[in-house]
Amino acid sequence: MMLLENKTVAIVGGGPGGLTLTRLLQLKGVKVKLYERDLDRNARVQGGPLDMHEGSGLAALTAAGLLEQFCTHFLPGADRTLIVNEQAAVFFSDHHDKQAKDLGELGFRPEIDRGALRKILLDELEPGTVVWDSHFISMKAQGDGWSLDFANGTRVYADLVIGSDGANSKIRPYVTDIKPLYSGITMIEGNVNDSESFTPEVHALLKGGKIMAFGKEQDLLMGQKGGGDLGFYASFKAEKDWHKNNGLDYSSNAAMLDWFNSTYVGWSKVWQKLFEQAVVPFIPRAINYMPLDQCWQALPNLTIVGDAAHLMPPFAGEGANMAMLDALELSACLTANDYSSMQLAIAAYESAMLKRAAAATRESLLNGERMHTVTALQEMTEIFSRHKKG
């Protein structure tokens, strides 16, 4: 008998991991609800496109029966890359190479807009599965399960709770006291609507792909988003709480442009348009990660996936892919009849998850350190050139 037969599952958080897990569990006939703090499905999804990897994100989409939908929505050419210096001089480009176009081609990591991926996953869920406007507040043990309270005043019971509520997870403290560490790197995120009209020079450089601009321990990282928008990140070394204590007005383009000019000294004026035309407010992000050696005792009715479980820097493109692989592996453990109890199934999932997440986090940390050195331009150019040849 399946472990989840006649049991209710509550998934908190509707990112790629939570939505993928919900879909996979529904395919197995599990009673599952997803509680999401957004008011509705039309809430704007921030962040740049996601590149899907063959052994994780794409594998999860295949198991969810959504590969065909993915193929009609991914962004052709969005995986193309330029590496430039502060003056926008090109040191590496793969725009003129033969580009992989089909899933399964070696090295092809197709990119998809976050909003498009969310829509694909939402469209396949059973009506009423997602409970919108559900901002999780707290929960307490009730019988063999949990009673969950939300900011809108609702209270629900679930036999199994799965936290998929991101970097600042409110579910994680019920699983472990381990807290994230600061990587030493901070990012400021900006978004430009209709980049062709408002930042034409940068748009022309992008050509629908992405740009990595390296200076002395400072980066500008950007990529084309769906609908003609552009997402960018100023990435640099800073003290832990710099993003809170710097006195910057993130809602002012003029203030952020002044900051850029005074901090990114000697950078080309071509980048200034990004700060002049970005939609405010800018979003500061201290880049944190979970300790590589984290572990905890598995619980019989609670676990976590994605950033809630293994927050990592974005410098290896693994975050969303790991979250979707979490969903694939956890759903398999819970529904495969290989374990005599939910606690054993959760323990098996968590043991494998923590091991592979540590490896991905280590890679992300190493990449982040490499990208913020005085020799970042040379090192990253060499790495991409070797990959191009090999």
Describe the structure.
The chain contains 13 helices and 17 strands. With 390 residues, the chain is an alpha/beta fold. The chain starts with 7 loop residues before the first strand and ends with a helix. 43% of the residues are buried. The model has no long low-confidence stretch (mean pLDDT 93).
Report the strand count.
17
- Taking strands numbered 1, 2, ... along the chain, how are they ordered across the largest sheet? 5-4-13-14-15-12-16
Assigned CATH architecture of the largest domain = 3-Layer(bba) Sandwich
Q: Indicate the mean pLDDT.
A: 93
Series of H and E elements: EHEEHHEEEHEEEEEEHHEEEHHHEEHHHH
Structural class by SSE content: alpha/beta
Apparent shape: globular
State the separation between the terminal residues, measured CA to CA: 49 Å
Q: Could you give me the name of the CATH homologous superfamily of the largest domain?
A: FAD/NAD(P)-binding domain
Rg over alpha carbons: 21 Å
